[in-house]
Amino acid sequence: MDRLHQFDARSHFDLGRSMGSHYGSQLTGYISRFLVDLKRVFPFSPGSLEGAAHAWLSSLPQCYLEELEGIAMSSGCPLHTIAQWYAHDQVIPGGCTSFLVRKDDGVWVGRNNDYILPQYWGYATGLRVRGRHPVVLFGLMGESFSGTGCSGQQLWLHYNWLPADDWPSAASAVSPFVLLRLMLEQCSTLADVEHHLSHSARTTGMTLSAVDGKTNDSAVFQCTCQSHRRWDLGEGYLAAANHSWTSVGSDFPPPDPDSVARQKTVEDLLEGFLGGEAAAAVGGTGTRAELAFILAHPDVEQNRVHSGTVYSTIAWPQQGKIWYGSGGFPAASQGSWRLLRFPPANPVSWGW
């Protein structure tokens, strides 16, 4: 099955119509099966998903609401079903492990996206609306929003779920997945990204890793619902999982031990990578293989049968290269790695 799709339109509504026409009834079946499996494997209180879907849909910026309306109109999949599909992360938080590392040849990114129902993942979707930067999103089929993506400005963003010790104060708070798409479409630099973070409220916490491939400026932003802190990548690395790097209120639960352990393992492995140990482990076959070795480490990659590392990405933004690990589970060790290209700033072709 072809899992690389691209769409180009004059407006978000037209983009949604194009996506809906392309997928047709296949999208309805895919989403319906996902939701059935979700409720079967991960039971949650009745009505919680419906309530989350209503709140999620109400929080969407108008342009994205129109895009989903276009998808619903052309595919025949009801809008409220699409909203439930997107809102499932509100009732089942995920976990991810990632890093930025600076080497002589630039800044590299590694990421394991750890979530549920691995059989549904492994798609890449290129989206371009005239007047906005083209983007590529990694994850589920036909997604308008994702936790991992890049843009025609050589901007790379990915998001790890993070518990927050505050609540959104504004009705305009949006999901981090939606915010990531918005920033990829509108931002050219890390300063633009930070401006968006400073002027938006989020529905949950997020650790956002960002690299500008034009300049190699790189940073990690740890965000609560209403505030954020920035760590710039100097020499070396920044590794992240799903806990805060700073102290939180005394009434806040302690960091998840699994998250702390995964991050510590990645940090130890990155020390070895910079010291040449990873090269020896993979026979000196290059940086991509060395970073894949880190992501596939059994104390980093996750496998819980119905959840775990559903896809992995390694990116070299300066050179516009992305390696996408998918099609097997867990993805970092069992998936196939496919080389993709960042979409050019003035895309005549997407360079798949």
What are the SSEs and their pairings?
Elements: E1 4-9, H1 12-23, H2 25-41, H3 48-59, H4 62-75, H5 79-87, E2 95-103, E3 106-116, E4 123-129, E5 135-139, E6 148-151, E7 155-162, H6 176-186, H7 190-198, E8 205-212, E9 217-223, E10 228-232, E11 237-240, H8 257-274, H9 277-281, H10 287-295, E12 307-316, E13 321-326, H11 331-334, E14 336-341
Q: Characteristics of this structure?
A:
6-stranded antiparallel beta sheet, 14 strands, Penicillin V Acylase, Chain A, 2 domains, alpha+beta, 352 residues, globular, 8-stranded mixed beta sheet, 11 helices
Report on the architecture of this protein.
The chain is of the alpha+beta class and 352 residues long. The chain folds into two domains: 8-89, no CATH class; 93-341, Penicillin V Acylase, Chain A. Helix content is 34%, strand content 27%. The chain has helices spanning 12-23, 25-41, 48-59, 62-75, 79-87, 176-186, 190-198, 257-274, 277-281, 287-295, 331-334; strands spanning 4-9, 95-103, 106-116, 123-129, 135-139, 148-151, 155-162, 205-212, 217-223, 228-232, 237-240, 307-316, 321-326, 336-341. An eight-stranded mixed beta sheet has the order 1-4-5-6-7-8-9-10, with helices on one face. A six-stranded antiparallel beta sheet has the order 11-2-3-12-13-14. A hairpin with a 3-residue loop joins β6 (148-151) and β7 (155-162). α2 (25-41) crosses α5, α3 crosses α5 (79-87) and α8 (257-274) runs antiparallel to α10. The radius of gyration is 19 Å and the shape is globular. It starts with a strand and ends in an 11-residue tail after the last strand. The mean pLDDT is 91.
